[in-house]
Amino acid sequence: xxxxASLARFAAEPLDAAARARIEALRAxxxxxxxxxxxxxxxDWGEAFLLAAARLAALDASLAANRLVLLDAMPAHARRLxxxxxxxxxxxxxxxxxxxxxxxxxxEALAQxxxxxxxxxxxxxxxxxxAALEAARDGAAELPVAVGAILPEAFADVLxxxxxxxxxxxxxxxxxxxxxxxxxHRDALAARYGYDLVTRNCVTELxxxxxxxxxxxxGVAAAEGGAALxxxxxxxxxxxxxxxxxxxxxxxxLSSRAVRAHWRVAETRRLASARQHALARDGSLAAAxxxxxxxxxxxxxxxxxxxxxxxxxxxxxxxxxxxxVNLAAALARAGVGVLTLxxxxxxxxxxxxxxxxxxxxxxxxxxxxxxxxxxxPPELRAPYE
Length: 385
Fold this sequence. Notes:
This protein is an all-alpha fold. About 55% of the residues lie in helices and about 0% in strands. It has a two-stranded antiparallel ribbon. The longest helix has 26 residues, at about 85-110. The relative contact order is 0.07.
């Protein structure tokens, strides 16, 4: 039996005869897939089976209620944004877009003749996002936000037999051994996959993934050094025109230069920002001046970001001057943040210091900060140019 908290609460239309028939077919396909899981040799079959059982219960509830009932896929650990007045004003537009996504996901999931995990998971995720936005529209103080693929998860207390099943002290020793093994496994994962700003970031791992793919295709050992590295370099030159060393290309704009310098680049595409898209549509001096300042730009920076006054990404000759203005304003904001520390939990101070940090490169004609918007209207989402 499903608990109410495990369901996504969203407004669903009544099911017509065709939709009911598709749900019944989907239920039969899922039931068969769940039965096959009981004979599976995969180590996590139990968790997958419980999820399938919960989904079957949700489909049964859909048929009983004559409307689509789905599990809530929003993770319990999802980041939660305070629904400020500004964010609440965006909810209707976000909800309109989320409902369109839900309709597309529903059509795709119910159109399948057999059980498709990815399609049904996308439907649950879309419904969960609609449910979260509807709750924010109706007055919820927080909006859960999860990035990437999400999957329904739920927890329940299970009563166990408290009678000792082993000799005194054995349980404590087994527990200590299990915790030690867990720590060792966590440390091993961190050593292998842990993030590092310089040696292992999103840029370096892109190039390492390409190296691994080339190594597999060319029968080259993945280890760097000696003959293996020379063979890997030769394979990369044969296929791409050259090799980009992940260790020397950890900065995004430097990696872009390295790609253009070493690879045979067939095409380069540039995705314009919302501000650049607005400038391209207007092109006047007035538009350029308007988009240069945060206060008059076509969109406002996301809440919680670093404080600054002027964008510097499009005005490199004036970048040091604009950077100095941004730095002075950010430091002033940090100073005010010290005074408001007891009232805002340090948000003002952090915003000022963050803004000052990203203003420093602008003093030397550099630019890292582009501005982050919490939501961009579809008409301002520029296609690849």
